[in-house]
Amino acid sequence: MKMTYGVYAGMLAMGLAILGAPVSSALAGEPGAGSEPSTTSATSAPASPAASSPEDLRRRIDALKTDLASLNAELATDENAVATPAAAVQDQGTPAPATPAAAQAPAAAAPTPLPSPSMTAPLATAIPHEVGAGPFGKIEVTGILSGIGMTEGDHIPGDSPTHWDLSNAQVFIQKTTGWWQFYLQGGAYNIPILGVPFLQTGETTKDVYGPFPTGYLKLVKGGFNVEVGELPTLVGAEYTFDFENMNIERGLLWNQENAITRGIQLNEAYKKLTLAFSWNDGYFSNRYTSFSGSLAYAINASNTLTFVGAGNAGSYNKSTLATPLFQNNSMIYNLIYTYAHGNWTIMPYYQYNYVPTNASIGIPVGAHTNGGALLANYNFKHGISLSARPEYIKSNGSASTGEANLLGFGSGSSAFSFTVTPTYVKDAFFIRADFSIVHAMNSTPGSVFGATGTSVNQPRGVIEVGFLF
Questions:
Q1: Can you list the pairs that 341-347 forms with residues at least 24 positions away whose Cβ atoms lie under 8 Å?
Q2: Same domain, yes or no, for 40 and 158?
Q3: Domain edge (last residue) among 83, 117, 142
Q4: Which domain, by its residues, includes 35?
Q5: Which of 188, 246, 331, 453 lies deepest, with the highest CB count within 10 Å?
Q6: pTM for the model
Q7: Are residues 317 and 392 in the same domain?
């Protein structure tokens, strides 16, 4: 319709131009127009329209002008009719913008989840609450509140077959813009671990990393940054706190790794490579003789390969829950492959841990472990997901040769575990459950599960309910 009216208007304009030229010439008294003898005009009048009187020509021009004005009015009405629905689709309750440029302006971007604390599927950090902090710029606040229930078979003496407790009451405060940034994490937390007796949240918070387990200052320059403070470890494929991971309980391989380190870390991102190097206190020993590093290569948007290495350049005979003697004096390596695409997240990884002999600090015979795990999660529709984690780890030696008991099940022991975790997420709310089994092999009687320490299997069921805010 719009094109048709345009053609009509063009044809009328051409007609006006053609007719307007003779009229102008006649009014100007040009030869051959209005100055011919009356005999010629009388003779030619019946044969040619060009001989019409000026009054006839004016009437015809006026009629054409009237038609042109009518067509222009209809054309304008048609353009408005086409434009109105397009504006109404964007926002029916708001008047159309005054200018086309304003109509095409993009909407303001919605807030997105923050990169810290680091989390794997299926849970994600909440949309941050922004707080103005004057000279400090914009501060962002998130947090978690959750509770946990556990039941287990073949519990060891001193433990209980069931537990109910607060699992997380933590707040995360951070500044993520500008050349200087920071991250603070504080509150109560629990760290349930496969094959290890349950420790109440109050005791965990007090005896492991304290009420402020993580906090650091970050200085940023392009793709390079420096972090100083209490930092998450570079080692392993699982994070420290349960809400950061696919499964509620930490695994057998995680129990050989450090979790929080105090020190300084340098990070550099260059094209597909991400490098990190840290000088720290290893297993929270407060003795700064440990080093760790990682090199990650992004093969493409879905696949990443990471190598991690860490070790203690010195030695220290400290032994606590956060600083186990053997592991704090060890060297540990990981090779981690990550696939994340669509609904799938898959992370197989290999781990090697070596503890050298050092009788002066209480390690008469050293040992090493080899282990592998597969972490996998699939997101279904309507907030439902399913995660699974099979893993196997083996230490060298035997009870007769007395190598370091790295797994806790005796010298030279090995273990297999399988954990499956269904999860439901609705906005800030989540509920999930762990179903797990640990099977120990080549174990030393009295060091495994049950009242007598001779049961080689321990099943568990865990449920966690909470809010990410």
A1: 341/301, 341/302, 343/378, 343/379, 343/380, 344/376, 344/377, 344/378, 345/120, 345/121, 345/246, 345/375, 345/376, 345/377, 346/374, 346/375, 346/376, 346/377, 347/120, 347/237, 347/374, 347/375, 347/376
A2: no
A3: 83
A4: 2-83
A5: 246
A6: 0.76
A7: yes
